[in-house]
Design goal:
The protein has a five-stranded mixed β-sheet, covered by helices on one side. The chain is an alpha+beta fold. The protein has a domain at 134-260: Heat Shock Protein 90, CATH 3.30.565. It is 68% helix and 14% strand. The chain has helices at 2-90, 97-125, 128-133, 135-149, 167-188, 222-237; strands at residues 153-159, 192-199, 203-210, 241-246, 252-259.
Length: 260
Amino acid sequence: MEKTHNDIIVFSVVVTLIIMFLGIYIIGMLYLYKKRQAKISEKLNELQLEKEKAILNAQLEMQEQTFNQISKEIHDNISLSLTLAKLNLNTLDFSDEEYRVKKIHNSVELITRSILELNDISKSLNSEIIINQGILKALELEISKIANTGIFQLTFNIEGTPVFGDAKKEILIFRVIQESFNNIIKHSLAEKVVLSLKYSQDYLKISIVDDGKGFDPKKITDKTKAGLNNISSRIKLLNGTFSINSLPNKGTEIHFSLPI
């Protein structure tokens, strides 16, 4: 009887110890799990912050390039037009009415042209258009601005159902397209350019095709290569892909694919 009683006590102690061990083990596992989850969450937050900083840096870089381009346009075009208008008005000959009227008319035309060019620059800078009306409206205004220059014929195609996306991403996409246009204007000598946006359920695919002089990707300059790398890195920030196909005298094709 005493042996059975002792066996019960031993069994109870063993069971109690096992339960305590399991309890401690479970608590320890939960602690480690929560600690690991906290580390994962912290790492994800760090990655998110790094991505946001990278996007911000890319936006700032694009803005700086845009400001430099605006400065050049103001210096080369608007400043010249206003200077000529001032010169016309300062050299008016009031004794010759016909000549005076002609100079005043020319001055008005120069000032009007300057106002229109400033308006185009304002529209190209204004990210409020993208925020309020989306990237398509901003692209239409940019295309209208390019069309007024007569540099090349630009066709704009849209396939699928457009999606009103995140404004910050659309601003960055717009600046990348804008920079691609600037590269075509500076280097391609193209006569025709086609911009195509294709919307699907999960992706936005963008292509820019020109009939310009093209280039050999193996022989591009460091400056051109850096510019293409900058565009590629910005697209990667948006979790997209970027490719470019070109041959001498065969034009250039640029393709972007972005999740939406």
